[in-house]
Fold each of these.
Amino acid sequence: MNYFIKRVLEIIPVLFIISFIVFVLVFVAGDPVALLLPEDAPEEAVETLRTSLGLDDPFYVQYGRYVVNMLQGDFGDSFRYGQDAMSLVLERLPATLELAIASILVAIMIAIPLGIWSSTKKNSSIDLVATGAAVLGKAMPNFWLGIMLILLFSVTLDMLPVSGRGSFSHLILPAITLGTGIAAEMTRLIRSSMLETLSQDYIRTAKSKGLRTGIVVYKHAFRNTLVPVVTIIALQTSTLIGGTLITETVFAWPGIGQLLIQAVNTRDMAIVQACVMVIAFFVIVMNLIADLLYQVLDPRIRYK
Amino acid sequence: MGKKLWLFGLLMLALLIFVACSDKDSEGDAEDTNPGKAETGDENDRTLTIAIGADMVTFDVHDHINTSTEAIHVNMFNYLVKRDNETGEIVPDLAESFENIDDYTWEFKLKEGVTFHNGDELTSADVKYSLERVAYGEELRDYTNYNQIKEVEIIDDYTFRIITHEPEPVLLNRISRIASGILPSKYIEENGFDHFLENPIGTGPFQFVEWVRDDRIVFEVYDDYFGGKNPDWDKLVFRIIPENSTRVSELLTGGVDIAVNVPPADWERVENHEGTYLAQETSNRTLMIFLRSTEGYPTSDQRVREALDLAIDNGAIVESLLGGAGVPTITRVAPGNFGFAEHLYDTYNYDPERAKELLEEAGYPDGFEMTFHSPRGRYLQDAEIAEMVAGMWAQIGVTANIEFMEWSNFVELRNAKENKDAYLLGLGNSMFDAANALDYYSATRFEGETDYRNDELEELLAAAMSNMDPKERSEQYVRAQEIIAEDVAHIVLHQESINIGVSERINYTPTMDEMIYVETITKK
Amino acid sequence: MPDSLPMQNNLVKNSKWKRWLKLLLRSKTGTVGLLIVLTIVFVAIFAPWLAPYEHSVIDPLNTHKPPFWMEGGDMANVLGTDNLGRDILSRIIYGSQVSLLVGISSVVLAGVIGVLVGLFAGYFGGFLDAFFMRLADSFLAIPNILLALVMLGVFGPGLMTLILVLGVTNWVQYARIIRGEVLSIKERDFVRAAKTIGVKNRNIIFSHLYPNVISSFIVVATLSVASTIILESSLSFLGLGIQPPQVSWGTILSDGRDYLATSWWLATFPGLAITIAVLGIIFLGDWLRDVMDPRSVK
Amino acid sequence: MSQLLEVKGLKKSFDVTRGLIKRKKQYLHAVNDVSFSVQKGEVLGIVGESGCGKSTLGNLIIQLLEPTEGEIIFDGVDLRKLPPEQLRKKREDIQMVFQDPFSSLNPRKRVFDIIAEPLKTHGSYNKVELEHEVLQLMDVVGLNRSYLNRYPHEFSGGQRQRIGIARAIALKPKLIICDEPVSALDVSIQSQILNLLKKLQKELQLTYIFIAHGLPAVKHVSDRIAVMYLGKIVELTTKENLFTNPMHPYTEGLLSAIPIPDPTARKDERRLLEGDIPNPVNPPTGCAFHTRCPYKTELCERVEPEFTEKRDGHFTACHHPLKEGKGIISQHEKY
Amino acid sequence: MNDILLEVKQLKTYFFTEDGIVPAVDDVSFNIHKGETVAIVGESGSGKSVTSLSIMRLIEEPGKIVGGEINFEGINLNKVPRMKMREIRGNRIAMVFQEPLTSLNPVFTVGNQLAESIKLHQKKSKKEAREIGIEMLRKVGIARPDKVYDQYPHALSGGMRQRVMIAMALSCSPKLLIADEPTTALDVTIQAQILRLMRDLIKELDTSILLITHDLGVVAEMADTVVVMYGGQVVEKADVFTLFKEPKHPYTKGLMDSSPKIHEWNEELVSIPGTVPSPFEFPIGCKFADRCPHVMNKCKEEIPSLIEIRKGQEVRCWLHSEKVVDLE
C-alpha cells in the first residue's frame, strides 16, 4: 500500500516534467498563426489573431496560463477543429485502445507459445526458426508490413476489409501489423527469461519430484516468467502507442495517432499537447498497473 | 496460476470488447451505413462511399480554407449562385435571379420554397446572416475574401441587395465558392453556433447524420431538396483514408466507390482493374516555381529566369512523372477562368541551347549554385518534379540544391520571407478569375519574398481590379499575362490533373473545381 | 563450496582476441551477424566506389525498369530503376551511409548522455538520482516515435536534426540500464574495496564502474542501432525522415510504397536491405550479450 | 601492547518501516550498543550466525556505513568526526579483506592494477617503483610474478583471495578487517589462506579484526574472540577461555553444534540449540537469547543482562553464566 | 549381498562442451545398502554433485551419461524409459538440494509444492494431499504446520525451508534420499538440527541416504560408508571408521589435515598445496599428482586403478597398489 501511494505520488512530478517538455517544444515551434490563415492574409489579420491567442505574451506568462488551464484539464481549443482539444483526444482514445489491446493480444498469442517453445528446445532448429521469425518481425517496418498485408489479404485474397474501423474483421489486419513487431520483442524476452528460469534450482527440484516436463515448464517455469512478461507488456505500451501512429495511418484507423500526425503537420499545438499528455498518462498508468501486478504475481516482493 | 493467467486473458478480452462496444454505441446507426462491400445488398446499393485523403476540418463554412472540406460541404449547403462547370458561366442556385444595379450594388431574388433540413424556409435573413458573418468576422479564415462586402440589405423575404465597399467585378465569383454556403440563421440563433457545428443543417441535397473524426462523415438524402430528391443515393459516406495505397486498395476491393487523389503509380492498376476506372480532369491548380527577383540573387536578372525556364522540358515532366495527365502552360490562368489567355496555354518554352546562351549573356557562363525549396507530398509528384527540374537545370550548368520541407515548415519559411532563390508551389483558384491568380505578381503583396516588380503590370492590375466592364477587364488581364510571361516572373510548369478512381457501377466525371457534386454521380 | 559445473576457467591460455574469435566462430548467428554488419559498414564507407551510378541522377526515359532477371530488365540496372529512373542498387548502396550514420551517431549521442547520467545518478543517488529518474520516467512515458515526430515537426526534418532528436529521445534507456548496473555494482565488494582504500569518487566512477557497465551499454546500443534504422524509416513514412536528395533506406522504402502493387522492386529491395541489416545487427547484439555477460564467461 | 581501536556504544539501525496506515516506525538494530577495544598486534575474532550484525560491525568500523550512534576511536581519533578529505587519507591505515573473492576484484582490471590501486591513491610512485612494489607484494602473498598482467577471472578462488590480501596489505595498514575471508573457499584452500593470514600477521605485526560465521576458522587465527547474537556481543574473551570455559549458553550451543570430524566421537546426547534465530526487527524482550536458551528463567524474559566482565578478561552478557569447563576442550588439554 | 539398494557401476558422465569433453564423472562405482548412509566427499569440481544428478537422470545438456550402470532395486536407471524414471523420481528416490531458498519455487505456496508429488505419486486428492502434507511438515519439526502449509517460501527462515525440502523429499517414503550438501547454506546451530532430523527420520522410514558433502565433520557424524572423490574419480572408499582412522590416499589425508580441529589445540593447519585444476588441466596420470606430496614419476604417467587394499577399503593410488603387489 505504502509503495502504491509512493508510486502514485511519483506520477505528479513526471506529468509536470512532461508538460514542461511539451510546452517548451510548442513554444519553440512558434507561431501557428501563419498556418491558420489563408496564404494571402494581410499582415494586420495575422497580428490580430496572434494577440487574441495570447501568443505575444512572454514565456513565463504563457507557461503559467498553460499550467493553470492544464490543471483544469483544459488544453485550449484545437486550431484546426476549433473544438476543445482534450475532448477531441478523448473521443479518439477508444479506437486507439481497441487497436492497442487487440495488438497486445495478438502479440501474446504469438509470443508466449513461441517463446516457451524455443526456450525448451534451446539451440534446436525450432529455436533457430522461432528466433529468426521473431527478429524478422522486428526488422520489418510497420507500414511496409501493413501495406503488404492489405495487398495480400484484402486485394488479392479478398478475405478481409482494407481499412477503417467497425466490425471485428476490420481489426484483424491492423492488430496483426502492430502485434507482430511487439510479439517479436516479447518472444525474445520470454525466451531469455524462460531460459533463465529453467536453469533455476527449483526447476531441478520440480524435475526431481518426477513431474512431467509439461508441468515443469508450464507450471513451475512459466509462472515465474510471468513476472517479467507482465513488465514487458507494460513497457511495450509506449512502443505500442508509438506503433499506432503508423498503423492507424496505413489502415485509416480513426484513433489518436492520426489526430496527432495531422496536428503535428498543421501545428495544432493544443491537440499535440493534449495527445502527448493523454498518451503519457496512459503509459504511466499501465506501468503502475504492471508494478501492482508484479506484487500479485511475485510473492517474494510481498514478503520483502 | 493457470486460473490467474486465464483471468488475466479474459480481463484483457473483456476490456477489448468493452472498448469496442462502448464505441459502437456512440456510432449509433453508423454500423448500418458501414459500407463493407459496396456492391452487395440492396441497402448498400443505394449508398455512395467516397474515400478522401484528409478529414474534413469543420462545419463552420466560413472558417476553413480547405478545398477538400468544401468538396464535402457542397453536398449539404448551397451557394446563391454557382459556376457551371461546363460553360464556366455563373448561374443561379439558391437565387432565382440577380442583377447588377450599380458599381457597388447587386440585387438578388431568392427561389421560394427552399427549405433547410429542419424544415425552416430560406429567407433573405439567412443570406444576410451568412454573408455578414464572414464579411465582418475578422477571426474567420475566409474573412479576407469577403470583407469587400459592406452590407447585405434586406428588401423583403426573398429579395436583398449586396453592397460592396469598392466596385467589385468578381463579386459573383466570390459568392460561388468556399464560405459562400448559406446558413440557417434562425436555427443558429435559437441553438447557438456550437450546436450548429455538432448538428449542422443546410439546404443541400444531403443532410448530416454523423461525423466520426478521421474515420467517416455520413449523410443521408434530403427528401425535400428544392432541386428534387436525389434518385440514386440514399446514403452518402465520406471515408477518410490518408494512405494512398490503402485508398486505392479500398477502391479495388469495392470498399469504396470513389477514391480521390489516386497516385500516378496506381493509375494503370485502377484503369485495368475489372470493376474500376480512372476519371481524370484538369484541375484549376497550377504548379509553379517562384523565383526571387531580389537584388543580389542571380534570378533577379530576367535572362537568368528565362534561361531557367527554357531549361525545363515541361512536356517531359508531364509525360514521365504524370503519365501525360497535366497540361504544360506558361500562364497560371487556366481555361474556364475569367481572363484566360489561350495563346499562353498548353504550350511551353524549352530550349536548353538558348538557355546556356542567356546564362552566358547574364554573366554566368559556368552556371551558378542556388537553393531550391520544395514541399513534399503536398502536390502530385511534387518531390519528383523538383528533383527532375533540378536535374534539367544541371544540364545548363546550374546547380540547384533542393531542400525539401515538411509543409508547415515550408509555410513558415515563406512567411518569414526566408525563402532563397526558388521554391516550388502549386496554387489553385477557387474564384475562377484572373484577379485572384495574378495578384501574386503585384509588387506590394510579395515584397521581401519574391520582390518581382513591373510598373506597367502594376497599373494594369490596379485598373482591372475595379473595372466593371468585363470585356475591357479581360483584355487587361490577357495583356498582364503576356508581360508576366515575357518577364518570366515565375516559372509556370503545368496545370495539375485531378485523378480519381471510380467504381464501374457508377458514372462520375470530376470537375475542375475539385468539388465532389454527388448530384453528378449516377448509377450505371 | 558448491559443485559448480566444471566448465569455468577454461580459456585461461587464450589471448583476448583469440578468445573473442573463438567465441564468435562458435556462434553461427554471431558470425553471420558480424559478417552482415561488416559488409554494410564496408559498403557505406566505399559507397562512391561501389555504386554503379550516382544515387540522385535521374533518367526520365528509363523509369520503372524491373530488376535484371525480369522481362525488360538488364544488367545496367541490376535491381531496376525507380519512378525517376534512378538506379535502385546505387541508391541502396548510398542509402547505407545515411542509415548507418543516423543509427550510429544518434546512438552514440544518446549513449554519451545516458551513460553519464546513469553513472552519476546511480553512484551518488539522492536528489540527483531522483531528479534524473523522474526525468527519465517522463521521457519513457512519451513513445519515442511520438517525441521524435513532434520534435521533427517543430524543428523541421533533416539529417542533423534527426540525429539530435533521436539522441535526445533515446538517452533514457541507457541511463536506466547503466544506473541499474551501477546500483548493483556499487554494492559489489570491489567498489567497496576501492572506497576503503580511499579512492576518489571520480576515479571510482570512471575506473571501476565505467569499465563494468560499458559492456551492457554496447549490447543495448548495438540493438538500438537496429531499432533506430527502423524508426528512421517510420519517420520517413510520416514524411519527417531524411529529406532528398539525401537518401536513406527508410526514404527509398517509404517513397516506393506507392508502387508496391505495380513496381514492387522499388520498396522491396530497400525493405530487404533494412531487414538484413537489422537481422545482422540483432544477431551481433545477441551474441555480444552472450559473450559480454559476465555470467557466461568467467 | 597499546590500544589501536576502541569502539564505544556503537549502534546501527536500518529503517524497515512498512505499512501505510498505522505507520509504526520499525527499525532493524543490526548493531545494538557494541563496545570493545583492539590492541596493537592483536587478532580479535568476531563470530556469530547470519544476521547477527557481524558484517555490519565490520563495515561500520571501516566507515563503509554510517553508524547511528557511538564512537569509533582509531589511533586516538574519532573517525566519525573527521572531515571527508582527512578520512579519505586515514583510510590507508584500515583495510579490508572481503568475503567473496569473485566480487571483490574488479573483473576489468589486471592483477597489477588491482594491487597498485592503493599505492597510486596514497603514494607517489613512478612506474618502475610501482611495479617493483607490486611484484614484492605478490611474492609476499605467494602469487606467481608471471600473473602480473592477468585478469581476475583467470584465477581460482584461493588465488583471488591472495590478490585481495595483497591489496589490503599494500599500504601497510595498522588494522585489517577480514570479513569472512575463507568462507567462500574450498576446504583445502581455506587452510592455505588462514595460514597465509596468520603468517602475514606475525611477520608484519598486523592487527586483525577477523569476522567469521563459524568458530573453526576464527579459532585458528584469533587471540580473543567476541561472540555476537542479534546485534550484540554476548561473550568476549580469550580464545582459550572461550573454548574451555564458555560462559554464555549461546557460545556453548555454538560449540557443541560443530560437527566433529571423528566418527568415534559421535555423541547423540549433544545439547543442540532449539529453534531459529528470532527476527531481528522484533527481538525478544529481556535477554534476546532467552527463546532458545535451555537455562532461561523468568528473569531472562524480563531483564536484559548487562555485558560485564565476569572473570578476569572474560566479558559476557548473561544472568546465569555457565560454570567453568563447559567447553569442548578440557582445560588440561591446553597446549 | 542381497540388500543392495543402489549399485552404481563404472558410471561415466561427460560434458561435451565446445572447449572439449569434460569427464565430470569418470568410472565411479559404489553401492548403497538398505538403511545405509553413504557419503560422497570432495571439493568443487570433484564430480560428486554430477554423480548424484546422474542417478536421478537429471543431467542436462551438454552433459550426458556415457557409460556404466545405475541399478536401483534391480532396474538399470540408465536404461528405463523416461515415463518409468518419472515414477521413480520423487517417489522411490528423492532429493534434497543445497540451497533451500532457490530450490523452492518462489511463486507457489509450500503446500502447493509439497502436495504436488503426493498427488502425483500417491494418487491422492487435493484434500488428502493437504492432510498428508501437513503431517509431513509436523514430522520435520515445523510448529504450526497448517499455517506454514499455506505460506510462500520467502516467508520462512532458511532452516524452515530446508525442513520443508526434507518433508517434500520424504513425503512419498522414498527408499533412497539423495542429499546434496543439505546443510552447507545453513548456520551451524541449524545445521546440527537438520542433521539430527535427517538421522531420526531415515531411521523411522527405513530410508537409505546418499549424502553429498565437502565437510568431513558432517561425514563423521552421519555416514556409514565414505566415498572420497577427486577430479571425477573415486580416490578412496571405506567405512567411516576405517577411513578416519587410517586414511590411505594422500588427498584424503590432506583433506583431513587441512580441516580445522575444533576440539584440540593445534596451531598449524596443514594444507594441500595448489588448487583444483580446471577440468581441462588435470594431469594425464593420477589426477592428484600435481598436488601430491608423495608424487612419483609413475603417478604422472599412468592413472592408478581403484584397488581394495583390505576388506572394505579401496584406494586409487600408486603408493598403495605397489604395496599390494609387494604383499602378494
Note: Chain D has ten helices and twelve strands.
Amino acid sequence: MKNEEKPEEKSFRSRLQRYRPLARYLGNRFGVYLFTLWASLSLAFILFRFMPGNPMAMSVTQLQSNAGLIVGADKAAEYYREKMGLNEPLHIQYLKFLKNMIFGPFDFGHSFVKYPTPVNEVIGRYLPWTLGLFTTSVILAWILGTAIGALLGWMRRSRFASWAIVLTTLINITPIYVLAVFLLLGLSYKLGWLPSGRPYDAQMMPSWKWPFIKSVLIHAILPVGTMVLVWSSGWILGMRSLMVSVLGEDYLAYARAKGLSPLTILKEYAFRNALLPQVAGLAIVLGMSLNGAYIIEIIFRIPGLGTLFANAAALRDFNTMMGLLVFSAFTVLTGSLIVDLAMPLFDPRIRRSDA
Amino acid sequence: MKVRKFLQIVSVVAVLVMLLSACAPQTVIQTVVVRETSEPVVQTVKETVQVKETVQVKETVEVEVKEVVQVEVTATPVPEEVTYVFGDLPRNETYIIGSNSNNPKFNCFNYMSPATKCDEWNGGLQLSEENLFMGLNGKIIPVLGEKWEYNADYTEIKLYVNLKATFSDGTPVTIDDWLFTFQSAQANMDKGLHVGLSKNVTVEIAGDNVILFKFFKAADEANNIAELTVPSPNPTFHMSFINSTATMGYHPIPKRLWDGQDYVNYPNNPPVGTGPYTLRACNEDTFTCIWERRADYWNADLLPKPKYIVFTRYGTTDAAIEDFIAGNYDLGGLTAALNDRLVKENKDWSKFVGLDICPRKVSFNVTVKPFEDVEFRHAMSLLLNREAAAKLDTPASYIMLVPWPYIGEPNSRWWDPEVAKANDVSVYDPAKAAQILDAAGYKLDANGKRLDKDGNPIKIEVYSLDSGGWGAWPRLFAYDASQVGIEVDVKMPGDANVFFDAVMKGNYGMSIVWACAPADWPIFNYGLFTSSVQKPIGEVAMWGTTGRYTDETFDDLYSKLSAMNPDDPAVDPLMKDIYKHYVEVKPFVELFGAYTELVSYGRYWENLPDGEYIIWGTSYQKMLWEASGMVDSLPVYNP
Amino acid sequence: MADLLTVTSLGQIFGTMTTVQAVDDVSFTMPKEPSIFNLVGESGSGKTTIARIILGLQKPTAGHVLYNNTDIGSKDKQWQTLFHREVQAVFQNPYSVYNPVYKVDRVLQTPIRKFKLSRSQQESREMIESSLRAVDLRPGDVLGKYPHQLSGGQRQRVMLARIHLIQPRLIIADEAVSMVDAAGRVTFLNVLLDFRERLNISTLYITHDLSTAQYLGGNIIVLYKGRIVEAGLTREVTKNPLHPYARLLIQSIPAPDPNKRWAEKLPLNMAEMSLVQSTNRARCLFAERCPNVMDACWQTRPELRKAPTDNTHEVACHLY
Amino acid sequence: MTQDTPQEAVLAIRSLSVVYVGRRSAAQAVTEVDLEVQNNEILGLVGESGCGKTTLAVAMLGLIEPPGKVIGGAVQIRTHDHSTQDILKVKPSLHRQLLWKEIAYIPQGSMSALNPVKRVREQLTDTLIEHGLKKNEALERARWALQVVSLDAAILERYPHELSGGMVQRVAIAGAISMQPPVLVADEPTTALDVVTQRSILQELVSIREKFGSAILLISHDMGVMAQIADRIAVMYAGRIVEIGSIHQVFASPLHPYTKKLINAIPNARGRESGERLIGLGGESPNIWRHPPGCRFHPRCEFAIERCSQQAPVFTSPNGSSGQRVACHLY
C-alpha cells in the first residue's frame, strides 16, 4: 500500500507540527497579555488625569484654610507642578509616562505626597505587609478551602457535610468587615487574648530579631484568621460543587466499576479534575491579593497597599495611584498569564487541542 | 475599664461567697477579700447585699459582709500596680493622644513642602519646636524671642532672641542659627510653605542676640496680602510677621544640619528642635510616635509633666470606643454623640470644647447673576436659618454678629450693634426676604417661580460639603428659598476636591466658606475684598476670595487700617466704618461659629485645659503648659 | 430557479496555523416542493458545520447558501425575520435547548408571541394543544411540566410541536434522534413525514444513522471528511451504493434479523481512523480505509460525477 | 449459540429489586429481576430508555448509590476459583477485588468514560495495580489487552481526547478484559458511535467471547444490535423482565406485545418501500414513580384484558421449549 503519511509521521517536522497548537496557544496568550498591560497602563494614566482636583490645589487649600493666608503658597504650588511635569500638555505627559514605563522600567517618578521618595520605594515599603498578610492568607485560604471543599464534596451525602455547607455558606455571606470587627471586639477587647490591630507592637522597630518576629506573628493571627476564614469558605463552596459535578462524570462511575479504592478515586479521578478550575482561580486571586484589602487594613491598622491607595487617592497623589494601578494590573495579568502558561501542564486537553 | 472589671470580679467573688457560706467556715471569706483596697470594698458590700437578697440567704450573708468591712479597714492600702504601655512606658507617666488621622506622613518632620502633606500636629512634631512668641489668652508670651523694636520710620525691626535654648541634640542655639533660619525661609519662599519672608527684606545680625530686618520698596506692589508690610511705616507688621499665625512661626533650625540640604525635602528625622520633647521612636507602620521629655530642656520652669507623650491612631470606630472606655487614651475625640455617651457612662472621661477660629460663612459669587445685586444678597441672607443649621452642626455653636470668632461679646471697639440690627446681620426672616425680592423687582410668575430682572426663573447653585453637620444649611436654605419661589440646586460632592475645584474657580452661586481669623485683630476678614487679591473666573482664587467681591471702599479703608496699630484709638471709627460697609454690601454673610469638642481621661492626667486652647492651629505644647497649671506664671511681653 | 435551498461550493476551514477543512466544496439543492433531504456521514464529516452555515450561525469560508434565491447573509431585516421563521432547527440534545427554570409551555408560547400567531389567550392555548397532538403528545402529559420531567423523546417531540406551531418551510434536523431510543425514533420520523405530506414542510435530515435516512427516503448525500462522496435518491443509494464508503455504511447497519448477521469481521483499518491526520487533501480521503484502493486514489482527488448506472446518482470515486 | 441444556450460570441475578428513595415516595426502578448468564454467552438486555436497564447494570456491579437502594435479591457470580460470591453481600475490599477480576464493566464509548487528564496507560495500570499486579506486570498486561482489541501499544501514552470514539471504546474493552473476568457487562457500548465503528466494536465483543469464553451482558435499546450478536435476549419493561429467550426464538416469534412492538419499530428501508409506516410504540414510556397496577404494560397494550390491570403476570413458557419465557396474561 502506498501510504505517503507513514514516513511523514516519523519526521522531526511532523513532531514539531504536533506542538504547533501549543506554540500558537502560548503566543496568543502572551500577545493578549502585552496588549492588556499596555491598555491598563494607558487607562491608569488617563483615569487619574481626569479626576477632579489636583494635588497642588489640595495642598494649598488645606494649608490656607488651616492656617490663614500664607505668603507664596500658590507660587510654591506652581513650582511643584512644574517640577512634576504637571504643566505639560497631556500627550507629552503620556509619552514621557510610556517612556518611563518601558525604559525605567516601571518608573513612576516621585510620590507627590511623600516627595521626594520615588513611588516604587513607597510601594516597596508597603508591599511586605501585603505580601506577608494578604498573600499568605490567600494561599492558606486556598489550601484549606480546596482540601475541605474536596472532602465535603466527597462526603456529599453525609449529614455532617450538609451542616458544614450551611455553616460555610453563612460565613461566606458574612461581609468580611462584619466578621473582622466581631472577632476584633470579641477576641481582642472582651477577652484580651490577642492584640487589637497594628502590624506589631507600637514601640518596636522592624528588625529580624525574634521578639519583633514574634510580635508580628501574634498581631497577624486576627487579620490572617479573619481573611482565611472568609476566603476559604468561598473556595470550599467552589471546590465542593466542582467535586460534586466531577463525581457525576461518567469516568467516575467507570472508575468505581473498575474496583478502584475510594482513596485512588478521590485522589486521582475526582480531586485532580476538580482542581483545575481552582488552580486557575488561585493564580488570579493571588495577583489580586497584592492590591491588599483596604477594609481589613483599616480595621486592623495594617499599612498595606490598600491603605496606600486610599490615601493616595484622597490626596490626589497621581504618581502613586498610577504606580499601584499598574502594579496591580501587572500582577493580576501576570498571574493569569502564568495560569494560562501553566494550564497545559495540568490539563492535557489544552496542550494539543486546536480549539 | 478597671472599675468595671473590678466590679465584675467582686460580684463573682460575692456569688462564690454566697455558695460557700452554706457549707464553709467563715475564715475562707476573709482570705478572699484581704487583698482588696479599702475604697471599693464599700461597693463590694452593696453588690453582695443586692445579690443575696434575691437568693434569700440574707441573714447569714449580712454577718459576713460586716466581717469583710472590718478586715478591710484595718488593712494597709496597697499602691496601684503600675502598668506599662507601648512596651516599657509607665502608664501613669505617659500622656496618650489618639487621632484618627490617615495622613500617610504620620512621621513627617519637615513640613516645608506643599507637596508632602506633612503637617505639624500629626505625629507631634511641635513638641520638639518652639516659637519666638506665642499668643495665649490675648497675651503675647515670649518664648525664644525677647522683644522687637522698630526704628523711627518703621523701615527696620530689631528682633531680640534669647540664646539660652539648646537643640535636642545638646548643641546651643546660636545667633548664626537664627540668621540661617530666616535666610533659608527667604531663599525658599517659592518652594516652601513655611512662612516665607518677603524678598523685600534683608536679614542680618546686629548684635549678640539681635537680628535686624531692613525693608525696602518693592518694584512691584501687586503683592500678596501678607506682604503688606513694606515699605510704609507699619506697626501691624508684628501680627503677620512675628506672630503671623498660631503655629507657623519661626522655629530655629540648626545650621550645622540644614546647611546645604534641600530645604523642603530634608527629612529632619529625628527632628532637632528646642522644644521640651525629643523623639524616641516613630513608626509609620504602627502610626505611633513616642516622645520623651528632655532632661536638658532650657526652660526648666516650664517643663511639662508627662514624661512621655504618645501620638497614635485609632482603629475603627468600634475599636476606638473600646479603647476609650478602657482608658487607652488620655485625649481624643469621637463624634459628638459618642463623646456625650462616653462622658455620661464613664466618670473618668470629661468633655471640653474649644473655639474654632474658622467660623462658617456663606460666600456669594458676585460674578453670577443675580448675586451682583446687594438687595438679592440681603434677601438670601434673610433666608438662612442659622439657628437650625447650627444645632444640626454641633450642639456648641453660636450665631455670629461680626465676621470674626469670639467668645461672649465681640470687641465693642470694632463694631456697632445698631448697625448690625439695621442690616439684618444673622437675621432669619423669610417674609422680609420675600418683601425685599418683590421690592427689588424679582417678580413671581404664574407658577409661583421667582423671576430675575430679565424675566427668567431664578436658579441658585449652592455648594457645600456633606461632611459633619455642613449638609444641614443648604438643605434648610433650599427649603426656605423654595417658599419664596426660588429653585435651589444643592451640590454637596462626596469628594472634597470637586467642591474645592468648583468653588475656587468661581463656578458656583453660593458656597460655604470657613474663614479663619485671629480674634484679636480681625482686619484680614476685610482684606479678602480688596482688588489686589482678586483672580479672574476660571483661575484658582485664594480661599475666601472666591466670591470675587471687591470695591474701592474696602481698598481704601483696608489700606489705612493695615498701616495702623490696633491699640490706636483712631482705629475704632475706621473699624466701625469698614464693619458697616461690610454688613451693608454683604460679600459674605455669617452662618455660625463653632466649637471643637474633645474628651480627656482624668485617671492619670487631670486639670486639662478648655477654652480657646484646643483649637485649630493651637499647639499641644500650649495645652500642656495649661495642663501643668503654669500659664499664669508665664512672663508676658507687651510691645 | 425555483429552489427552496441552494448550497453552492460550500467550504469551511477552521484554524489558522493548522487547518481543518470541515466542509469541502459541498453543493446541493432542495426543491420548492416539500421534500426530504438526507445528509449522512460519520462524526467529523462536516454535516453539523453545514447545518450551522445554513442556519446562519457561521460564515462559510467559501461558497454561499441561497434560500428562496436570496443569499442568507442578506442584510434585509424583513427578509431575515422571514428566514428565521421559515427555517427551523431541531438539534441533537433536546435538553440543552430548554431553559431549565421555565416550564415547557414557554417554549411553545414564545414563537406565538414572537411571530404574533394568535390574537387571544384562548386561541394560543388551542393552537398549542393541537400542535402537541400533531406530534403524538397528550397536552396533559407535557404542559405545566419542567424540561427535566419529560423523557428525551418527549422533549424532542415538543420541539416538533413548536415547529408545527410556527409552520416553517424547512426543518433542519441535526442528529435529532441520535439520543432518542429506537422506539422514540419512529414516532419522530413519522412526524417529519407527516409534516411533509400534510403541511408541506421540507426537512434537511442530518444523521450518522443511515437506517433512519433510509426510512425517510427522499434524496441523500453521503459525506466523508467534508466532501460529498455519493449523492442521489435515497432509495437508489441505499439499494445500490457505489462508493466503497457508502457501501461500508450500508453494510454496517445492524440488520434486525439474527439470520442475517455480518458475515466477516470488519478489517481494522476500515473501522478506525489513524491517529495521524493527513493534511494532504489532493487525493481520495477514504483511501486509507478503502478495500479497493488504487494508485490513483493517493494521487488525485476524485470528482463527483454521474454514476454509470443511474442518471440521478452521483459518486466521487476513481472506480467509476 | 443457545444453551438449552441447564448449566451452572456464571452470573445469576436472583429477584433483584432496586428503588430510588425520593422525599415522599420510592420509585421502583428494578423489580424482582431474575437473570442468568452462562459461560460463553452474550445475553442481550433490551428496553426503552428509563426502563431500568442501566440501574440493573449498576446494581449488578454492586454500585448502587443513594438515593438508589437495593431492597432485595442477590447477584451471584462464579469466580475464577469456582466459588460463588454474592456481590451485594461481600465486604467492600473483596467487592473491589471482584470488580474487574470477576465482573468487568464496559462503559458507553464516549470520551467522558475516561479520565481526561490521565494517560491511557495510567488508567489501565492503576486498576491492575490495585488488583494486585506489580507495576511492570500491569504494564505488560495492559499492552497485551490493547493487542487483543487490535490497538497499537503507542496508545498507552495518549490522552483520551487524542483518540477517536472507536479507539476509546476499544481501550475500555481492553481494560475490561485485562483481568480476563468471566463476566463482562457492556452498557450501551456503541450508542455514541457511527455505524461502521459500531459494527467493528460489536464484532470485537464477539471475538472476545470466542477467545476467552466470557459471558457478556450486553445492554442496548437497539434491536438491530441484539439481532447481530446476542445469543439470548431479555426484554425489559418498566423495571421488569417481560420476555426472555434465544435471539432466534424471540425474533421469529415474539410473544409479549411489547417485544412485538419493539421489533416492528426498527426503522429500515423495508417498510418504506411498500409505502407503509412503521408504528411507534404509542403512549408514553413508563414513569417509574407511578407504575400502573397489574401488568405494567397494560395502558399501552392493545391486547390488554381486564386481568392485566389487576394482577401482575408471572413467567410462563407457552411454546413448551425451555428457552423462551414470557410474563403476559395472554399466555
Note: The longest helix of chain A spans residues 210-247.
